[in-house]
Amino acid sequence: MKNITLILCLFMAFSAQGQALLSEDFNYTDSLTKQGWTPVSAWGTNGLYARATGLTHTGYANSGIGNAVDMVASGEDSKKDFTSAVTSGSLYASFLMNLKTAAKTAGSYVTGFTSGASGSNYNLRFYVKSDSAGGFYLGIGRGTAAATYSTNRYTANTAYLVTIKYGFNTTATTNDTVAFYVHPTASTTTIEPAISAYTVNNLASLATGSDATEINAFFLRQGTASDSITLTMDGIRVATTWAGSVLKTSSTQQIEKSAFRVYPSVTRGLVTLSFDKVGEKAVVSVVNVQGQVVLSKKYDNTEGDQNLDLSLLPNGTYIVRLVSEQGFVTQTIEKQ
Predict the structure, then answer these.
(1) Contact status, residue 11 vs residue 285, Cβ threshold 8 Å
(2) Whole-structure pTM value
(3) What is the pLDDT of residue 207?
(4) Which of 168, 247, 257, 258 could cross-link 61 (Cys pair, CB 3.0–4.6 Å)?
């Protein structure tokens, strides 16, 4: 019962995606290169696929939608272009990540911002390194400059919400700023913290690493076999403001239970979804007792009943959660 209560607390909100330069929830099961991502290197070698279990974080709008991407020790690196390039001001990206393994204490970069047609400029690099005790440190660097790492230690197999920041500064060619922030595990920081409150800030003191003239893409990098870094990435959101990147779930209104029915409540696989005044569009997610989204489906038309096949899921208790512009509603079912 405690697990069910926790799930209900974790998934009581949702909002429309709002304006962003990039919003990627991996709401498909496919190769990323077939879904708008462009290979940067090693195309087809350990290709990037959206098929892992989606990640969640309380209060984050891009949480618990669709699947996620498992990134392995080496292989294909890819980028996804923004709707428009950014040349001034500040640029933010928020994303969910679950660290699994890393062999090196020297560290290596796994994601960040890039530019250019080839996508290999890597203007902001977000790093991971081992602490030699099963945990991790996170770091950030501008261009080819050395990374600055956190003093905080992060644990394996835990979903973290991270926001990275690139600040353009036109007064010199090596003084653009980079920083990152790791949100509390049980909440989302919706107002940008003072720079001193960032987990790591790397400001204007760097004499190396060229500034970007523009940034136009977000990249995923699988590194090399010797790095042995493996992780899961999900819920990427890029914007020119903190609030646009860290979009908070805003529909906290609970829909009447009678507006959404899932039956039978005990099933061997197939259930029927019955909608009534839940809004024209909705997302239905199935969540296990560990709080993982194991199935997610978007409905562009909620008229009439719809079937949902759960036959491939392990037996157990699940929460079926509907979210729409009207709010949210949940129902518990048992798969046997």
Answers:
(1) yes
(2) 0.72
(3) 57
(4) 247
